[in-house]
Design brief:
The chain is an alpha+beta fold. It is about 55% helix and about 15% strand. It binds zinc ion.
Amino acid sequence: MEERDVDWYIENKLFMEIHNSERKSFEGCRRRWDWHFRDSLYPPTTIKVFEFGIAYHKGMEVYYNPETWSFDPEVRAQLSIKAFVDSCEAQRAKAIASNAFYDAEVEQDYNERVELGRGMLSYYFSSVAPKEDNWIPVKAEIAFIVPIKNPETDEEVMWCKCNTCEEKAFKYLHFLAENGTDHTAEEYWTLDPNDPLYWKGLPVVYAGRIDLIVQDRFGNYWVLDWKTAKNVTAEENTEFLDLDGQIATYVWALRKL
Ligand SMILES: [Zn+2]
């Protein structure tokens, strides 16, 4: 068997992925990170602020769709609000279908969310976008997966051999061996360190989704990311962008691509 390169692993969704949320969690509190990302101890439901964020992003994706950018802004605004509301209603339907705790309080919460989002988007489209949109959208919702360099050996790809990766890799091997390939699982990799086919691990990658890339009138590209928050403190206003690791790492990923 020929050796498989990192692209093969990525194409077959075999990797150890790190996202911005995990990076932030690790920076914030190691114990919380350990519980969440290594022991998988977290509530099984999507927390409501996340649901709101997802719906809000759907709205923005529609407003800044490069293909409809020439439409009347008022039309784009209405389409966007509709996309937001549709997304909230889909979440509500899912909650009703799957969650035994859909009661009057939850019902009220979904209703309030829809109204809150409508208000936020309307304000944004009437008072913020006309002033700030001095550029054209190039591409929205860009998913990326980039291998992370090994900081100790300087190798271009870092390979992970944790239990989760091992399980994932060998499950896939058996799937391959049983589904129409000419090779048995053992012909791909082995766990014998003396064998030339010794399993080296799964590549560690940084994965994420960029909300929007725009181009200004000078031809420069900008990365936009939508944030929704109850409030932003004065401190966050002045320092948070300079210290923001999310966009910085996204730019790093884009450069690598
Ligand atoms: Zn791993």
